[in-house]
Amino acid sequence: MDEGLKNLVDRIECGDMSSYDDIPRLLACEDTDTAQYLFERADAVKRARFGDEILTRAIVEFSNHCRCLCAYCGISACNEGIARYRMTREEILASAREALDQGYHTVILQSGEDLFYTKEMIGGIVRDIKAMGREYPFPVAVTLSVGERDYETYRYWRQCGADRYLIKHETSDEALYNRYHPHSSLEKRLQCQKWLYELGYELGGGFMVGLPGQTYETLKNDILLLKTMKVSMAGIGPYISHHATPLAGSPHGSPELTRRVLAVARLILPQVHLPSTTALNLKGGKEAALSGGANVVMNKVTPLKYRALYDLYEP
Ligand code: 5AD
Question: Among 33, 45, 100, 272, which one is least packed by beta carbons within 10 Å?
Answer without folding.
Answer: 33
